[in-house]
Amino acid sequence: MSIKDGEDHGHHGHHGKNKMFRRVFIFVAGFILLVVFAILIIWLVLRPAKPKFYLQDAAVTTFNISGGAAAMLTVTLQITLSTRNPNDRVGVYYDKLDAFAAYRSQQITFPTAIPPTYQGHHDVVVWSPFLYGMNVPIAPYVSTSLGQDKSSGLLLLNVKVNGRLRWKVGSWTSGGYHIFVVCPAVLTFNGGHSPTIRFQQISTCSVDV
Description:
Layout: H1 3-46, E1 52-66, E2 72-84, E3 91-103, E4 106-107, E5 112-114, E6 117-119, E7 124-127, E8 130-137, H2 140-152, E9 154-169, E10 172-173, E11 177-189, E12 195-197, E13 203-204, E14 206-208
Antiparallel strand pairs: 1-2, 1-13, 2-7, 2-8, 3-4, 3-5, 3-6, 3-9, 9-10, 9-11, 11-12, 11-14
Protein name: Late embryogenesis abundant protein LEA-2 subgroup domain-containing protein
GO biological process, one term: defense response to other organism
Main location: membrane
């Protein structure tokens, strides 16, 4: 065998390996694209609807405003919050949820963590967390408005939930999505110093995902 024949043989062997690698790469890339396309089609067909949230009850056991130049609020609020998954084939993982109360756009309680939860198709989940605010600094106009509302006997609060969720379709789970929930709560003050919920009826919440 001549030197040239050896070189030609090596060249053909190297070319054959490159051709095989290209075929494997094309096959793997095509398979991945097919899987991604199938997931996209399933996602577009199922397209999950946002979960429904409802504020079922709220009770305030502590409500004190300290006057002075630096007004502070101490409040204890227990809520009953429910959520329903309206989807037929899509589950929901609530990875992180924090609930808090707000008055006139100012947060008046510290965030309370709600335990991570999985919600199946058409499932209903109920939580009853306590929301606490201890010596929370409030703006002067908020202090004045709270005092006026307390004197009138009516108080409008917003219970808010901020967190992250994931969708589950079969064995596939999506990436994380931000969820933000706002639930209005109208409270009435009784004859004493503590307010109670005005209506024992479900309040529908707005949900943004």
